[in-house]
Amino acid sequence: MRDQVEIGMGRTAMRGYDLDDVAIVPSRRTRSSKDVSLAWQIDAYRFDIPLVTHPTDAVVSPATAVRIGELGGLGVLNAEGLWARHENVEEKLFDVVRAADESSDPEAAIRLLQELHSAPIRQDLLATSLKQIKDSGVTVAARVSPQHAEELTPDLLAAGVEVLVVQGTIISAEHVARDGEPLNLKRFIGELDVPVIAGGVGDYRTAMHLMRTGAAGVIVGFGESRSATTTQVLGIGVPMATAVADAAAARRDYLDETGGRYVHVIADGALSYSGDIAKAIACGADAVMLGESLAEASDSPAQGYYWTSAAAHPSLPRSEITGFAGSDADLEKLLFGPSSDPYGTLNLFGGLRRAMAKTGYRDLKEFQKVGLTLRG
């Protein structure tokens, strides 16, 4: 039974643990890192590394989605972002970065981002961006919010989207609305011929509900990072080690319930270092969703700045626009090295590979069984 901690008379809280609270325990066996596989597969789509990009314009352009795909991951374009609203997106991103860098008003860049997102979504621009990805031969993935999923999805499928990501800060199996018809994910997913990844969630029950909608993957977390301000704005927090482990338990129970249907768990948040990626997989994730840790790549669209898609919310933004030190490392070096950084911010998946080798595991599914210890 999970620890219940009394926080006051008649009020308890459930104890949860962050990735920083746990550590991986070496086993009796080690192996060569050359014998380790980082491959994973969702539906019919196989990837060389367990990487899904956080769908933010700061990290994912059509060009970087292609590059991520060429490097073995899955780049997810935000179908409600700037690439769907403006023709000269590079100039718009430069304006946002300049406002964040030069303005004495810390809110100026957020206001500009909100203004840019007030432009209507243009299906021709979105189709052009997706065509660039499709023509490269990599898997095409796009993100929609639950509020606009039914409206945008037909055009996304017509443009060649192969994996659909339905993502909000917090998502449920059925959104209750006073006005209009709510999105029923079970019905929505059941009518599609492409795999759907949905999230984010933070507990066992919601993860199980999403799995029962027919989702091929469930996102755990809301992109916690130095930029995200969801906890400050909404008071909602996700202790990632506990949340991933709970979702993995839901995956196991759903596998038994359905007689063999496997739903992938994708960790999204608190993933700054290669060791964090290793611990997320060790807690039960099949893949990780990275955003902020990719922002420093020299080929990142926002030139070292980062924000989540929630930064552009018209009335309640939940992300800062944060700048990072410049880097000469491109995406390939950031993911695979070589690295001279001793803290695990470069060669992210080389670090995961080495962690698996040091503990004797050959693939990601095996590594989910590695021992963990609690700090302190």
From TrEMBL:
> Any idea where the IMP dehydrogenase/GMP reductase domain is?
17-305
Q: Which domain of life is it from?
A: Bacteria
Query: Gene3D superfamilies recorded for this chain?
Result: Aldolase class I
The alphabetized UniProt keywords are:
NAD, Oxidoreductase
- Entry-linked InterPro entries: Aldolase_TIM, IMP_DH, IMP_DH-rel2, IMP_DH_GMPRt
Instruction: Write out the coiled-coil annotation as residue ranges.
Output: none
Show the NCBIfam families listed in the entry: IMP_DH_rel_2
The entry assigns this protein to a family as follows: Belongs to the IMPDH/GMPR family.
Q: Identify the PANTHER family for this entry.
A: INOSINE-5'-MONOPHOSPHATE DEHYDROGENASE, INOSINE-5-MONOPHOSPHATE DEHYDROGENASE RELATED
- Report what the protein is called: GuaB3 family IMP dehydrogenase-related protein
